[in-house]
Structures are given as C-alpha cells and as structure tokens.
Amino acid sequence: MEALFLDCGRPTAQLMRDSLGRPMRTLIRAYSGLLIFLPLSIACPSVGSRSVIRVDTALVYVQGGPQTYNDFPQVRDSSRILPDGSLLPDSTVPTCSPEALPDTLGWPRSASKDRPSAKSRGVSIRLPATFSPVSVPGYWQEQQSGEPRTLPADFRAWIVPRPGYDLPRLGGDVEQVGYSECRLVTAHDVFSVITFEVHWAGATDVATHYVLAISPLAKDSVLHVTASAHDSLTQVQFVSALRTIFVN
C-alpha cells in the first residue's frame, strides 16, 4: 500500500494497480484451505489543495500459525511458480513510473562483487549515503545510529541463471498487505520489479517493505536483487537505485 499524491487530478507519485490497471484491494484469508475475498474500500481524505490516496496494489494474504512457512509474496496465479520455487515475472504488467522515483544523483556510488569466487562480476550502484557495502559480496546495509529497534535495511545483488524472482521464506503469523509489479526501463537494462509489504502479528508498528527485481544480462545470466526496509520511502529509494546499477 503506497501513499499517492494527486495535484489537479494528476498523480505525482507512482499509482500502483493490478495487472489490468485497476486500483484495488482484496483481502485473502486462508481457513483450512478456504480462500475468502473481501473487497476493501479506498480512502481519499483531502489535505489542503492536494488529496492523499492510499491504494493497495492487489493482494492481502494472512498466514497463520507459528510453524507455518511460505514464500512471499503470495500471488493469485500459481502457474507463475517455477519448479525451482522462483516466481516467473508477469509479462503483462505496465512500466514503472519514473517520474515518481527520487533523484539518485546525490547518492554515492559504491561497488562490490556478486559472489566470492574467481567467476564473480562487479556490481556498482548508487544508494543513499546511509548505506555501504559490507564484507558479504553483493550486499549493502544501512548504518544505524543509536540502539536499533529492528534489523537494518539491506540491499543484495547477485547473478545466477535462474529466470524467476527469488522469494524470501517467512514464518509465523505474517500478513501481506500490499503487492505491486511493474517493468522498470533504465538506460542499460530492463528490470521486472515487485514491491510488497508484510506485518507480523503482535508487531503492528513494525513492517517490512520488500523489493524484488530481476534483469536478464545474457543467456543463463540474470541479475537478481532482493532488498528490505522498514518504511515505504526507503522501498521507493531502492526501486530508484535500480536505475543506477552497472555490471562489469
């Protein structure tokens, strides 16, 4: 779910819609294998001369039980799940809205290897100044000050032959409260991008905002990105940072 600002009826932030271009929110609850769809309303309160609209992208999924584990995000079309467990990109989604993404020119560029081997390739990217590469190849982490309440935001990039999104596996009482997919066209690459948000039961003030992205580089060579943050602003910054990635 993202906050969108409309000025004279024109969106100035990315409008997140389903694969048919329709803003919507659907709640799916699983009770002994039964899926129940509950349409939820969209609020549009006025703020001065602008309106703030919160639109869920398509899907809300509730997973129950401490011993329950699933790959996220959950999607409606199970035929997209490949035999290796990865998720095939949706070829029908619209392009991402570049005008909704923050400028990256002021962010420092840093580089890392995509893996700890002789066949590794270099990956460089612009991220906000609070992020820096760590000892793990292809991994950037937010530097936190003071006593951290949660794990730091992170950004990981690596190159493998797998054509589908790598999905994080989450356990416990997890609620997926937003989902969006689009194609991001950059100067050098085309990324398939998923953004989604999850909450855990008993931690209503703590959410994790994910970005998953893939970009084919050559035959049997696909750039994968998985990033997570604790606010939607950093999530959008991660999407914008994809435009700055160089692989050599």
Extended strand count = 19
Structural class: mainly beta
Helix-strand string: EEEEEEEEEEEEEEEEEEHE
Helix content: under 10%
Shape: globular
Rg, Cα atoms, Å: 18 Å
Q: Termini separation (Å)?
A: 35 Å
Runs in which pLDDT lies below 50 for 5 or more consecutive residues are 1-58
Please give the order of strands in the largest beta sheet: 4-3-7-15-16-17-18-13-12-11
Counting DSSP H or I runs of 4 or more residues, the number of helices is 1
Q: pLDDT average, as an integer? A: 75
Strand proportion? over 45%
What's the number of domains? Answer: 1
Largest sheet: 10 strands, mixed
Structure in a nutshell:
The protein contains 1 helix and 19 strands. The chain is mainly beta and 248 residues long.
Task: Describe the model.
The strands form four sheets. Strands 4-3-7-15-16-17-18-13-12-11 form a ten-stranded mixed β-sheet, covered by helices on one side. Residues 1-58 have low confidence and may be disordered. It is mainly β. Helix content is 4%, strand content 46%.
List keywords for this structure.
single chain, 248 residues, mainly beta, ten-stranded mixed β-sheet, four-stranded antiparallel β-sheet, 1 helix, 19 strands, globular, disordered N terminus
